């Protein structure tokens, strides 16, 4: 296996890896994110020996709980398949402690600081990584209290923060200006967990490490790019929270735009964090604000059989809510490479399947010898079941000159069956431990992404007469979706005749 690209020059401004005996502090340790994502990821890194030697983990939250309750809670989402992992989990829990305290008073943070000082007693320096698994309402105040009360006098600190980073350009800038005087850009790691996903991290390698992709990656060969996010479940249980954001703020302005940026950016000079992020910002700046005529929105209704609720059936959702749970948005990039190519972002809750993928559709081949030969498509399946496949035409074997659509298929669980694919949060926390900012969102990147989306969001918020189209829970989305996509040149003429994946025996499901 070649390790060519692993030679990542560290950015000059980047932080060094956390040394031995550092402490990771999880703020919001009693919450859902901590339980479901942060602690399982911390354990994943610990289990594979990827944490600095002597690391300690401290939880902090308002909830009063004893040691047993804390440990029960943080291990509730950790999978324990055998005795070996069970033993590792015991050792892991042995390095975890908890402090209860408020988010808005010095007192709690002073208690946290004394607890950290006890852990670090006898060490010449203290190095602390604060992970803010917190709602945005307490974000700034916690960041301020940490700086005031828990910032090491001798050593270093870094802080990981999670979206939402505001709800539009102004509120994002407000958040930035509240954080920036106290935490430097080098100390801040803004997580977009899509940047930690294995296939998203593969995009630059696929593009720039393969000349055949690299050479055709432009408006001369590519007709459209679709980035699709589908979830099968609705917002049941968190409708009230979701209603403040809607699908565009929830996954499109951040996760899907990040994927788009990786697909569209120019080749970075190196794999260093700043070189990559410079190119990402450049492509974002070449994207005009979204024109509402290139947007459709939807909201899920009851399922056709009436067993699944509509979005507004949720009692926590305001009556008559116009919040979109589905959107398709077309963006353009005004540069030499992409001018005129539609980048279609599609995202929805309560749809017919659960998947995230990028579909690059190539242009028609020159006609003449072929009548109606389907287009090539490159599909990057981000989840579930990571894979890369190319839909291509071939001669149907036998005494015929008929063509058939088949595929070049790299399905990870067949090709790399013995390799562990890390969870996105494992990959990103390890990057933060190593001081590598490449897969985190820089301040100017955040600003550029809000600039593209804010006018559309304001228009949707203010235009009371724009109501999302209803679609049944469990369907493909609003009925006009196919016509909308077709109007941007996307052809779906193979629907029903081609199916991926193929069966295990390598045979197609008889569908070709
Ligand atoms: C979160 C959104 O950021 O991403 C959720 O708030 C969404 O609504 C989730 O379900 C999707 O993440 P993943 O990793 O499951 O695709």
How are the SSEs ordered, and which strands pair?
Elements: E1 23-27, H1 32-47, E2 56-61, H2 67-74, H3 83-94, E3 96-100, H4 106-119, E4 126-132, H5 136-150, E5 155-162, H6 169-179, E6 188-191, H7 198-208, H8 211-216, E7 222-230, H9 239-243, H10 246-264, H11 273-285, E8 295-301, E9 326-331, E10 343-348, E11 355-362, E12 377-383, E13 387-395, E14 403-411, H12 412-415, H13 424-433, H14 443-462, E15 469-472, H15 481-486
Parallel strand pairs: 1-2, 1-4, 2-3, 4-5, 5-6, 7-10, 8-15
Antiparallel strand pairs: 7-11, 8-9, 9-10, 11-12, 12-13, 13-14
The site of 6-O-phosphono-beta-D-glucopyranose has 5 residues, from helix 10.
Enzyme class: oxidoreductase
Domain Glucose-6-phosphate dehydrogenase C-terminal: 204-490
Domain Glucose-6-phosphate dehydrogenase NAD-binding: 25-202
Structure notes:
This protein is of the alpha/beta class. The strands form two sheets. A nine-stranded mixed β-sheet has the order 14-13-12-11-7-10-9-8-15. α1 crosses α13, α10 crosses α14 and α11 packs parallel to α14. The longest helix has 20 residues. The N terminus and C terminus are likely disordered. The structure holds 6-O-phosphono-beta-D-glucopyranose. 6-O-phosphono-beta-D-glucopyranose binds next to α10. It comes from Myxozyma melibiosi. Catalyzes the rate-limiting step of the oxidative pentose-phosphate pathway, which represents a route for the dissimilation of carbohydrates besides glycolysis.
